[in-house]
Amino acid sequence: MKKRKRSIPRNIEIAIASLGLVLVAPLMIAAAALVKLSSRGPVLFRQDRVGLNGKKFTMFKIRTMTVSDGGAKITAADDVRVTRVGKILRRTKVDELPELWNVLRGDMSFVGPRPEVPEYVDLADPHWLEILDHRPGITDPVTLRLRNEEALLASVKDRERYYREVIQPYKVRGYLKFVRDKSWKTDIRIVARTVWVVAFPAAAKTPTKEELKWSFAE
Q1: Residues pairing with 65 in the sheet
Q2: Which residues on adjacent β-strands are paired with residue 58?
Q3: Residue 172 class from Cβ within 10 Å (0-12 exposed, 13-18 middle, 19+ buried)?
Q4: Full-model pTM
Q5: CA-CA distance, 67 to 192, in Å (whole number)?
Q6: Which residues contact 128 (CB under 8 A, 6 or more apart)?
Q7: Within a domain: 33
Q8: 106: containing domain
Q9: Is 4 among the domain residues?
Q10: What span, in angstroms and rounded, lies between the C-alpha atoms of 72 and 68?
């Protein structure tokens, strides 16, 4: 059986995630209070995602949108469902801090392909199977380059189609390159890069139109 590429050791991830949850607890409590005071609904947002080997898990975030029974699975920059507090949480990435719990549980790693919702994953596609041979993560090089994803979606009319036909193929291609070169050294570099990009968003190199339009020739 094919061995997975090495990444940050699991016991180190558990220790860092545990410490991280303790350190960011005051920030999450403050964010939770703002969410509760500014809109009706639960503080946490729970959503099914596809994880290691195609197994579904529940990913946790701080809620940034109004509560509704339906709606698109993708979010554009002008999405009216995003609350005023939610816009700040999304921009600063504070809404993703509960994902440390997913790391602690073993659903996710710090570095790995971002987990997708089941509707956008084709388990019969060998590309997806190769990607899902790795534990999904909080950050990865593709996610860093697509910090403007919501703005890209806001610039088109048919957002669902644009996501499926343009953005997702770009993500899959990037994830494949990433997992094929993955190691604990690349993981550490990506973590450092993530901290830098969160602090200085302009440092993120966004993909060109040519890169986004590229599609698989296989």
Answers
A1: 82
A2: 48
A3: buried
A4: 0.90
A5: 34
A6: 121, 122, 172
A7: yes
A8: 10-213
A9: no
A10: 11
